[in-house]
Each structure stands twice: as C-alpha cells, then as structure tokens.
Design a protein that fits this description.
Helices cover 30% and strands 21% of the residues. It is an alpha/beta fold and 299 residues long. Strand 4 and strand 5 form a beta hairpin.
C-alpha cells in the first residue's frame, strides 16, 4: 500500500477527472483505501473528510467538471481532495477528460513515414487489425482536407535520426490533429524504440521524451544538431532494420494500438519500449512529464 500524503508536486489538477476503470474506493475510519487492480493500491489519510473525499473520487467518471464535483464541499475538504487528485493524476490512476471512444467505435490509423519499416507497418497492420481499428490512407506529411473519422491515431515510423521531424509531428498532434499518437524508430541503429502512446490530455509528449534522452546522453549537444530544421541539420541517411528487430517493434506498437480499445489501461502502454538490435533484449522504461517542456509543460 502507498500512503498519499503531502503535496504531489507540479502536476496540474484535471479539469474533468476520471478515475481508472475498475477502481474501488473504500471508507475505513479516518482513511480511504483506493484499489485499482493489483498494481495500484493506495491508503489516503483523509481524517474527518473521509466521506466527502471518498464520494468525490467515486464521482470521477470523466463526465463532470471539477467545479461541479467540489460544489458543496468545505474549503478544507476541497484542499485535501485537490491534493489527492493531483497525486493520483501523477500515478496514472486519475486522468483528465472522458475515456477514449468505447469498444466498437471505429478507429483509423494514419501512418506517416517512408522506407521499408513504414511499408512493413502498413502491410502488417492492414492484415491483422480488426475492422474497428483499421489503417487509414498512407501519408508522408500533414493530411489534406477530408472527413474526420470518429477517432484518429497517427503513427510516425522512422529509420533515421531526424528528430526535427519527431518534434514537428508531436507539435502538430498537440494542436488537435489526432486523438492519440505513437512513434516507432530504428534510427539509433543499435536499438529500436516504441514510444508511449501519447494522448492530448495524457502527458508527457514526445518532446518530453527527447528532452530526457538529451539529459541522459554523454553528448547532449548532438541532440541540438539532430533537432535543427533546414540545411543546417544535414542529410539523414535511412538504414533498413534487421527483419527480426522490425517485427518485434511493430508487434509492440500493434499491441499498444489494440489496447486503445480496452480499459483499464495498462502502464506499459504509456512506457517506452527499447529493443536491442544485437540480442533483441527488450526493456520497458517509464516516461515522466518534463515540467519545462515548451510544448506540454510550463516552458
């Protein structure tokens, strides 16, 4: 059990909070037990505000704004509920906004990128995805004018280190072009990446991810060069990945896309998958919000 006490940090309070599906809220004296499956079990020190905070948590279904949920609460109850919801947001037990479209509603995938990996993605997913999660038209850039599908997920597939393209893709989706997006790359050559599923209200974004890469790099200045646009950025040369590496990366991405139709969400959907080219060893890493991110943070 994890005790939720104190200030959770810099996370923002969600405007329309939604508790992870399947969560159980139990009042127990002066504490609240929140059980969201086997992976999330919290004990909330609620004191005399147990009933008010427990009732608010049960009402976090993604269909009522925060102002409505807190109407009628005393000031100290609102303060405690705010701290609790902020912390649960950081733990990915509370989300901002309604759930993704319900199972059975159509999804459309648009794959951006050129090269053998992108073509393999189009071919593989065309054959294996269900009718409710089907590939859309291929595109190597912003989509032209067309009727918007009920839900749109875009995937950027790369075989080079053009990080300027990643940032442009991320910025375009944050502006409202897609309901979810994903990045698959074999550009580093020694390994391949499948990014977390990015949601408009489910930070962090791809720029947060690249900023973390830069901080961990022994040569961070190279990320500045790789992120430049225009002639100063140089020419990127794509390399065809090993077929086994490509299949594993696309299978991981395929799994993340298929999971969009189901709740509860799994933490691995929102983690970075790294597959080593030499031995196909796969590692999973959490990706945290960068509060200084110019795109989704405080800048």
């Amino acid at each position: 059990m994890t005790e939720l006490t104190g200030n959770p940090g810099a996370e923002n309070r969600p405007a329309v909070p939604r508790l992870l599906a399947g969560s159980t809220v139990i009042e127990d004296g002066l504490v609240i037990h929140l059980i969201a499956g086997e992976d999330f079990r919290f004990t909330i020190q609620s004191g005399e505000s147990t009933t008010a905070v427990a009732r608010l948590l049960r009402q976090c279904r993604g269909d009522r704004p925060w102002s409505e949920l807190t109407a009628g609460l005393l000031p100290h109850e609102v303060e405690l509920a705010t701290r609790v919801v902020q912390r649960l947001l950081s733990e990915r037990v509370v989300f901002d906004g309604p759930a993704l479209p319900a199972p059975g509603k159509p999804w459309q995938i648009e794959i951006e990128g050129a090269g053998s990996l992108a073509e393999m993605a189009r071919t593989t997913w065309q054959a294996s995805l269900s009718p409710t999660l089907s590939p859309g038209p291929a595109t190597n850039g912003p989509s032209g004018a067309r009727e918007r599908p009920p839900a749109l997920v875009r995937v950027l597939v790369q075989q080079d280190l053009d990080y300027a393209r990643v940032l442009e893709f991320n910025r375009r989706q944050l502006a409202g072009a897609a309901d979810a997006w994903l990045w698959v790359t074999t550009g580093p050559l020694a390994r391949g990446y499948v990014s977390p599923v990015i949601l408009p209200r489910g930070r962090p974004c791809l720029e947060c991810l690249l900023r973390h890469f830069r901080r961990l790099s022994p040569a961070p200045q190279l990320y500045d060069a790789l992120s430049r646009t225009g002639p100063a950025g140089g020419e990127f040369v794509a390399a065809d990945p090993d077929p086994a590496l490509a299949r594993i990366l696309l299978e991981i991405a395929h799994w993340k896309l298929q999971r969009l139709k189901h709740e509860p969400a799994l933490s691995a959907q929102y983690a970075l998958h790294v597959v080593e080219a030499e031995n196909l060893e796969t590692a999973v890493h959490p990706v945290w919000l960068d509060p200084t991110c110019p795109e989704c943070g405080d800048g």
